[in-house]
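Sanity check. The docking grid for fe (ii) ion depends on where the pocket ends up, so I'm generating a full predicted complex first rather than guessing from homology. Inputs follow.
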Amino acid sequence: MYVPLPSHKYVPKPYDLHGLNGISDQTLAIHLKLYEGYVAETNNLMNRIRDILMDGQVDQEESPAYAEFKRRLGFEHNGMLLHEYYFDGLMSGGSKEPSATSAFRWAAEESFGTYETWKVDFVGVGKMRGVGWAVCYLNPYTGKLSNHWISLHEVGNVAGFTPVLVADVWEHAFMLDYQPSERGDYLDAFFENIDWKVVEHRLNRSVAPTSTPPGG
Ligand SMILES: [Fe+2]
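Predicted complex below; grid placement will be based on this.
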């Protein structure tokens, strides 16, 4: 019996982020176009994989293309989602630091002793050589935060952890506004525009999948 497979149609999220501090509207316009490209390519790859599966198998002739589509899908799909975490977490008129009573500050203090130490570590990741992402994750098993480097979108993600704060440090994110050597200035600007309410929401919605850590 022939059962048609569904097509995949992610739709780019609309963002109105003009007027950020230190990140120009021109940079944002280019960056959002790039994001839309990741959405389009994710749909394209998923649909090409769907086409291969239409006859219910992956035969020998198709398998090299199938493998290549699957490998590229990790890059494109994570490229789409990481950009959404990044853009969702920005707002015009954001505040540089979370408030004294914020759950994020509390989590940072629980995890690093002080918020300032958490920030030194996050910015340290963001200034690492190479292009990629600085991501603060919540470990849902322990409730602790940790900062990680992701390169090429799909390398370095931590399985099961929740992205809480995501900074794009590919050069396209800042090269119209800063020199490549001024990534620290771009990260200062990034912090000027954080929507801490979104960050806190990500913390709160993350529910531990089990009360016992794996292997515990
Ligand atoms: Fe980007």
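Relevant for the grid: The mean pLDDT is 91.
Also worth noting: The beta strands are 133-138, 145-150, 162-168.
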